Amino acid sequence: MLALYNAVFFLSHTANTFAGFRKIVDEIESINGVGQIKDVRDMRAHIDEYSKGKGGKNKDNARFVYESPDELYPAKPFADHLFAADATSTIILPDSYLIGGRINVQKTVLTLERLLPDITQNCDKYMQIPQNS
């Protein structure tokens, strides 16, 4: 979770300078929802504060407990959602492994593998180390 957060953080903060990174960040966040990677990372890193209802900027802790959206699975065992999970939970479904109930590991890994050539190309383009001559 920390490595994913750090990668998205780096790409996001350089996206204004390096145009190729914005598309990459947008695609990664489209899988899990904008801001969800940061939220889950923060909640997992500061579990003591969140468990007491004092975590982050959202003092009512509404983000700590997550209810799966209807589009995730149409046949849900509960009346209005498939599951509820706090940010420390790991949910294992037939085709998904979800960190915090919302970060889809399989989709994220597959997307990053597909985007790796773009990431590498942009890093090579923008972050060349000058050669001593």
Quick structural gist:
Helix content is 48%, strand content 12%. It is an alpha+beta fold. It has one domain.
Tell me what you see in this structure.
The protein has 133 residues and is an alpha+beta fold. It has one domain. Helices cover 48% and strands 12% of the residues. Strands 3-4-5 form a three-stranded antiparallel sheet. About 5% of the residues have low confidence.
Shape: globular
Count of extended strands: 5
- The spatial strand order of the largest sheet comes to 3-4-5
- Residue-averaged pLDDT: 76
Q: Which percent band covers the strand fraction?
A: 5-15%
Number of spatially distinct domains? 1
Main sheet characteristics: 3 strands, antiparallel
Distance between the termini: 41 Å
Low-pLDDT parts are 73-79
Alpha-beta classification = alpha+beta
Order of helices and strands: HHHHEEEEEH
For the structure shown, list the relevant keywords.
133 residues; alpha+beta; 3-stranded antiparallel β-sheet; two-stranded antiparallel sheet; 5 helices; 5 strands; 12% strand; globular
Write the layout of secondary structure elements.
Elements: H1 2-14, H2 19-32, H3 36-45, H4 47-51, E1 65-67, E2 84-86, E3 90-93, E4 96-99, E5 103-104, H5 105-126
Antiparallel strand pairs: 1-2, 3-4, 4-5
